[in-house]
Design a protein that fits this description.
Blueprint lengths: L4 E9 L4 E5 L2 E5 L2 E13 L10 H13 L6 E8 L9 H16 L6 H8 L16 E4 L5 E4 L7 E7 L5 H7 L2 H6 L1 H17 L2 H16 L7 H8 L6 E4 L6 E5 L6 H8 L8 E9 L2
Antiparallel strand pairs: 1-4, 2-3, 3-6, 4-5, 4-11, 6-7, 8-10, 8-11, 9-10
Helix pairs in contact: 1-2, 2-3, 6-7
């Protein structure tokens, strides 16, 4: 039985913990934060005018209607999002994942994370957002296929550094060549091994170290302003590590909130030379 309306949401990510060339393609793993996109799907008699910012959501909606055997149905989608655009925080993917969940609920159906990702990549390159509730998941950056998965959901916080600068993820994917990524394959294999050790031991310290190594590799291909100064600031406090949006502009300084006070960090960051360039705020990890 169909409902008249349904609502669903999906968290943002703070970039990726790591991303690079592994086993024949680019792989990535991300973590969620407590910003989200919320989508409402409502049955309507005719298709509404589609905002330019929601074209991909409606493309996905039509694919889902066909999948559910309801191609004649018309739906209006409404989006409310807290996620900054063009920063590498999965704003677009969160919209699409939330759309999948909302449309499925409208018909009393559910979709697995693999099914959601399979639909999303028909519209645009996806990330691991659909899998966040299951734990850290390594996926293929192009196809969305799962390469490896763990049930571990590491709990930490991030001091998010978000610049005003926006960057198109699709443009970055076109600019970064396979050759560039392959040239870092040996080094990234070591990063991935460090990540695996972190997961096996459930060590936040090792996880932060692996993320920092991946961020440094991506800095060679997609430089972040003030990266060295941010690293130097990081060394003044017991941060776990640093992660970046590998195809965006945001940076996350990972920390254990039981060891570092969020308000103190925000006060200290305002005294740094990069504070005028980056807006700083605190986010906790979110796996749902």
């Amino acid at each position: 039985m169909s409902l008249q309306s349904a609502v669903a949401s999906c968290p943002a990510t703070c970039g990726e913990l790591l991303q690079g060339w592994l086993a024949g393609s680019e792989k990535l793993v991300a973590y969620g934060i407590d910003l989200s996109s919320r989508v409402t799907a409502v049955l309507v008699p005719s298709w509404p005018a589609i905002p330019a910012t929601q074209v991909k959501m409606y493309q996905l909606c039509r694919l889902l209607l066909t999948h559910f055997g309801q191609p004649q149905v018309k739906i209006k989608l409404s989006r409310q999002s807290e996620i900054p655009l063009g920063k590498g925080m999965a704003s677009s993917t969160a919209d699409l994942v939330a759309t999948c969940r909302a449309v499925a609920r409208l018909f009393g159906r559910s979709l697995s994370a693999a099914e959601i990702t399979r639909f999303c990549v028909q519209v645009e390159a996806s990330d691991a957002s659909a899998y966040l509730a299951q734990g850290l998941t390594v996926i293929d950056a192009r196809t969305g296929q799962v390469y490896w998965q763990t049930k571990w959901r590491p709990q930490f916080a991030s001091l998010v550094l978000e610049p005003a600068t926006q960057l198109s993820t699709a443009l970055v994917h076109r600019q970064l060549t396979v050759l560039q990524l392959k040239q870092q394959a040996t080094e990234f294999a070591q990063v991935y091994q460090a990540f695996m050790t972190a997961v096996q031991t459930q060590s936040l310290t090792l996880l932060g170290a692996a993320a920092t190594q991946s961020a440094c590799l991506r800095q060679q291909l997609l430089p972040k302003p003030y990266f060295t100064a941010i690293q130097q600031f990081m060394q003044t406090q017991p941060f776990l590590g640093l992660n970046v949006a590998h195809s965006g502009t945001v940076i996350g300084l990972m920390f254990d909130p039981q060891r570092l006070a969020a308000n103190d960090l925000l006060q200290q960051i305002r005294q740094q030379p990069f504070s005028a360039y980056y807006r700083a705020y605190i986010q906790a990890t979110e796996f749902k």
